[in-house]
Specification:
3 helices, 7-stranded antiparallel sheet, 160 residues
């Protein structure tokens, strides 16, 4: 997937979050529990979001640094299990939320390159949840070469 397409997908997620009817957005990898929950709410008296995820300690440090450098949000980290932290980020900044989504999606692409990642967007307007495919694994290419039966070597001589 090109960087431009990836940027457009993240922008569509941000557009969904900025929509006042959106209550939550959940990133869900194929056949695994959700990896990121984003809920609409208030932050610093403005419409904002709270994002929570369980992640490796290294990623929690990266997210904490991103929030600290932005100056536009709060980040709380709590220990969950061996090398796993619960990270909770509150912000009213779409730019910070975009950076958080970029990092989570890039991590998914790096650690699970063959797994699909979808975003489920829930709204307060009574419409059905929307699904946005964020990461699609590369299509498996069918071989154009004809299949040959496996060869078995059979010896008529017995070992001496």
């Amino acid at each position: 997937m090109s960087e431009g397409v990836a940027r457009e997908l993240v922008q569509s997620l941000i557009d969904s979050l900025v929509d006042p009817t959106t209550e939550s957005l959940v990133l869900v990898p194929a056949e695994r529990p959700a990896c990121l929950h984003v809920y609409a709410g208030e932050h610093a008296g403005k419409r904002g979001w709270t994002a929570s995820l369980d992640c490796r300690r290294m990623m929690s440090h990266l997210l904490r640094a991103i929030v600290a450098n932005s100056g536009d949000g709060r980040c709380a980290v709590s220990w969950r299990a061996h090398n796993v932290d619960r990270v909770t980020i509150s912000t009213s900044s779409p730019a910070l939320m975009r950076r958080v989504l970029d990092v989570v999606i890039a991590d998914h692409r790096r650690t699970c390159p063959d797994a699909r990642l979808a975003a489920i967007v829930l709204g307060s307007d009574g419409c059905a949840p929307r699904r946005i495919d964020v990461v699609r694994p590369p299509a498996r290419r069918a071989s154009t070469a004809p299949r040959r039966p496996a060869l078995a070597l059979v010896s008529s001589h017995s070992p001496a």
